[in-house]
Amino acid sequence: MTRATRPLRFLHRGQTVEIDRFQPMTTLLDWLRIEKRLTGTKEGCGEGDCGACTVALGRIKAGRLVYEPVNACILLLGQVDGCEVVTVEDLAEGSALHPVQDAMVRHHGSQCGFCTPGFVMSLFTLYQDGGAVTGGREAVLTRIAGNLCRCTGYRPIVDAALEACAAPAGDVFHAREAATAQALSALADDRDVLVGDEASFFAAPRSLDGLCALMTRHPDAVLVGGATDVGLWITKQLKTLPRLVHTGRVAELRQVVDAAEGLTIGAAVTYAEAEQALAAFDPDVAVWANRLGSVQVRATGTIGGNIANGSPIGDSPPLLIALGATLHLRRGAAERSLPLEDFFLAYGRQDRAADEIVTHVVVPRPGPDDHLRAFKIAKRNDQDISSVMGALKLSLDGRRIRAVRVAFGGLAGVPKRAATVEAALTGLDIDDRAACDAAISRLADDFQPMDDHRASARYRSLVAVNLLRKALAEIVSGRRDETRISHLRDAGHAA
Amino acid sequence: MPPEPAPGNVEKRQTAERHVHQAVQHDAAERHVQGSAPYIDDVREPEGTLHVAPGGSPAACGRIRRLELADVATAPGVVAVLTARDIPNVNDVSPVAGDDPLFAVDRVEFQGQVIFAVVAETRDAARRAVARAIIEIDEEVSLVSVDDALAANADIMADYAFRRGDAEAVLAAAAQRIDGRLRIGGQEHFYLEGQAALAVPEEGGCYTVHSSTQHPSEVQHVVARVLGIADAAVAVEVRRMGGGFGGKESQASGWAAMAALAARLTGRPCKVRLDRDDDFIMTGKRHDFIAGYRCAHDLDGRVTAVAVDFASRCGYSHDLSSSINDRTMFHADNAYYYPDVAIHSRRMKTNTVSNTAFRGFGGPQGMLFAERLMDRIAWALDLDPLDVRYRNLYGTGDRNITPYGMTVEDNIAAEVMRELETTADYRARRAGIAAFNADNTVLKKGLALTPVKFGISFTTTFLNQAGALVHVYQDGSVHLNHGGTEMGQGLFIKVAQVVAEEFGIALDRVKITATHTGKVPNTSPTAASSGTDMNGMAAKNAAAEIKARLAEFIARDWQVPVSTILFGDDQVRSGDQVLSFGEVVKKAYLARTHLSAAGFYATPKITWDRPKATGRPFFYFAYGAACAEVTVDSWTGEFTLDRVDILHDVGKSLNPAIDIGQIEGGFVQGMGWLTMEELVYDAKGRLRTHAPSTYKIPTARDVPADFRVAFFDHANREATIYRSKAVGEPPLMLANAVFSAIGDAIHALNPAHAVDLDAPATPEAILFACEAQRAARGG
């Protein structure tokens, strides 16, 4: 690395922690529990699905100090560079419980207590950002969707959250906000983070040029966006990843450009950062955004990562493909772009060289004659992986279907367009139900899905056809309330 | 939105008692919310602690052809590798039958069965070393499902039956007959704290074992058995579990034994904490069942005869399957009277992990069958299922003998249901739902109100005993210990309330201490919902004994009759003589009074003659009812739970806050079991849903905003601890209302056709059932 580099730096308990040696694969949870002996934060699953390990990361975003919940079990220690790390041990002031803790106690929100620190930390972030002030119960449900409790049935936790967070009076974190912001600003700089040596390192370059140069020199290094997937390679697959390159500090990859013609979303933009702009496209996108992982996952996981790892069941590709997104990549100094659907070659294989970097995706904004629908089918509403994820953009010319883009995840080894159905629907009168049904039934020509633990092939085929029927019926009727169970109609006022 | 105040905001009640019947917070609540309540893995490790990770079989069934561990032993950080050869005594960690090896030898019988374990300096090193093993299995055809086992006639133990009258004859002659089959899925416990144990070698060949277990005495026995040492050389301590739900009743022992074996071989403290995937794969679950049934009924919907054949997946070994399947039979009636009846149970051997206790202990599966039966009868006769349920309830003077010969003496099912029918506004909502369904093609609503009647006591009669140890110190503070374990259910605070009440002292004068086999020996598992009933009584007996000695002493001192001595408000008084409790204790001590007592309790009245299938296995029954309303999307199979009303019988609640928590939590756990939690094994017997990424338990959004929970507030007719009732398991079965409501919604697609829906009612199961309704209608 040619530029000046520095070790890892973050804020913890009011002190700047500087670490110049650590094993690159170290998770934040292991650092807390094993290194610091702070055992309040629990490991429930080691894969970011139960939330027992939730801690809060404080960061300056758009000039404000923001606390977001993250799953410490799959977050790499190196990712907390420049953040304040807040754990459950940090909330009470002496014997005075934090308002969130106090409400949890008074509402009998804990039974076995093992999940409780994670809930407390998720609610701590809700307390800080005031999401429940306007969002109420919906905001609470969304905030704790990534926290599993097996004892209480959640009702007392929700009650405690509403009491503590719907009208937060302010706590010491609010009181020292300016000081914290100042301390965090002092940590911000344009140097690259590098800990380790050529054989084994954690790197977080600051510029795209620096990132590209690093990947050219170490094409075998693993690119890490939010680590919501790579974290599991470490904790579950027990892979050895000696060279890790984190994209989260690369300024060029962190941008969302919201223009009239569409959105440009940098590869290191988190789901949470992208969803606000995307959700304005349609209520279905807001619901989609709310059901993608959990708040913890959305605070760290990136759109670029979700695309680049090529999962057939990732939630963003089908929607982005239906919207007509273009993917942009860079290798060394060479840039190129392609329609997103062309990026996915076959199961586990993408059109990307080892040292090539997904830089951004450009998403056209739907026009006034475009109708968008997005559907996610899973066993559980929140924080589940799709068995089928379908999205459709239908452009009407009067009542005639001028153009239509249909994309599905979960039906093939890659996220894929339904080319036959698209062709069959194009030109039809949308009110001609028989003709539309016949066109939709051609889905069997586009997909031959598989059986697995999420769903059978038969179910996938049947539900995919029904989702298209539903989309068309809704576009014709102009309403969704007759065809949707309540929580799939809109995302409420959830933060 | 619910008009009533949230049920958890239980106001302090105006009662004669100061502590019992009060909504006291969980004793560890303030530590829970600060992360300062330690679980096994949080306890500061003794210097030199090693970490143990298990290595499991890659195949479900076959001979171990090759086990190559050289690379494992030389991996970084590895201190030792354990196999069956390292066991000094018996290679068995089973609770009853002697058929659960700690390490498989020669053969494996399920995927994930432990073959070896690695002891290393760090947990990460141990886990990474495990992956270096070379294991080759000569795979044989494995029996994975209940169907596989039935086809192979692979019963793991003898079948069993309850019979009364001649069901076959009645069925053969019946004009109205219903035949059917219901498949009921299993369930993973998903306690948030996985299995964990820390074994510390002590002097003289003794061991202290910290275990996350519901059954410390069994852990003690199993560790002693494996190591070949006396029970008295093993001390097991349990401060708390991060959830148990039955999964740590018999199946915590193996991990504790593994840690103890490692400690013995290395001479160092050793800890096992399972990775979540290993926990899913290597530990047992709720049994899945097939219930094949035939039923005759009259035109009013009254059952005249039932014949049901249960078959369950027990897995590769016995574990607790005998008692669990018995309880399915005990509850195949739920709250209903079956005149002529034949309940038959087969327990199938499969090449899957040995299934085990799970909240309800087989009862839920029997009761779900009973509710399906009621729905089927209602659909056949075009009656409201609630009316069919009423008509089949046990009577109070007649029609009150169960298929196992016990008279139901405390039947309040009808009262509970009638009250809930009114408060939930069942009839008006039924009409509203019919109107909604007439107007909607894609969305269909469903409603159901189902009862719960659950037998309280271990059906293994000898387990119905408990002990407690109470010390009073010279300052008047009290050390409380008993054989029950705390897994979040609030047992510790309830027993502390009882002891504080008995002494008439402030609750914070009673110090709750960890369960320890050295303080109270020969304990029964904290299971069968019996924890408070039994340990509360044992502790009360211990406190009463000390109190009697104190009363006798102070009466002598004051020269008044013992009968005039009163304890209360932190004082002891007789007439106008008053001393603080602490002062009396101090005086008593100086006068050489014994201030410690071991209390004991054995549940009265119960008998059970299993060979004759008759007796009174239960001290009493706990009742409840739930009313659930759902909306089903008949095009996708998704559903939403719109509203739930619950009325539940906890007798006279010992702690309303804790009891509400058990009711709501149990209901939600049951709802998960019946709607989204799906255990999927592939054809080779590998569990495909082995982590929360693939196995989904309910989240907060799955619980309806409109969730109305109330107590059916009447004293237990039996003399239980302060007339309360057990509450751990019964509420789980309230969720049967959700399953029936989903069936009701699907039924609306074609009222002429009985719904064929199995559990869990996943979107897939619901959509296929909807398709079947539409197909039967002809499109």
Automatic annotation (TrEMBL), chain A:
InterPro entries: 2Fe-2S-bd (IPR002888), 2Fe-2S-bd_dom_sf (IPR036884), 2Fe-2S_ferredoxin-like_sf (IPR036010), 2Fe-2S_ferredoxin-type (IPR001041), 2Fe2S_fd_BS (IPR006058), Ald_Oxase/xanthine_DH-like (IPR016208), Beta-grasp_dom_sf (IPR012675), CO_DH_flav_C (IPR005107). The lineage of its organism: Bacteria, Pseudomonadati, Pseudomonadota, Alphaproteobacteria, Hyphomicrobiales. This is Xanthine dehydrogenase small subunit. Residues 6-91 form the 2Fe-2S ferredoxin-type domain. One of its GO terms (molecular function) is FAD binding. Residues 194-368 form the FAD-binding PCMH-type domain. It comes from Phreatobacter stygius. Keywords: FAD, Flavoprotein, Iron, Metal-binding, Oxidoreductase. Its EC number is 1.17.1.4. It comes from the Bacteria.
From TrEMBL, chain B:
One of its GO terms (molecular function) is molybdenum ion binding. Residues 10-20 have a biased composition (Basic and acidic residues). It comes from the Bacteria. Its EC number is 1.17.1.4. Keywords: 2Fe-2S, Iron, Iron-sulfur, Metal-binding, Molybdenum, Oxidoreductase. Residues 1-36 are annotated as: Disordered. Residues 34-141 form the Aldehyde oxidase/xanthine dehydrogenase a/b hammerhead domain. It is an enzyme of class 1 (oxidoreductase). InterPro entries: Ald_Oxase/Xan_DH_a/b, Ald_Oxase/Xan_DH_a/b_sf, Ald_Oxase/xanthine_DH-like, AldOxase/xan_DH_MoCoBD1, AldOxase/xan_DH_MoCoBD2, AldOxase/xan_DH_Mopterin-bd_sf, Xanthine_DH_Mopterin-bd_su. Its cofactor is FAD; Mo-molybdopterin cytosine dinucleotide; Mo-molybdopterin; [2Fe-2S] cluster. NCBIfam families: xanthine_xdhB. Belongs to the xanthine dehydrogenase family. This is Xanthine dehydrogenase molybdopterin binding subunit. It comes from Phreatobacter stygius.
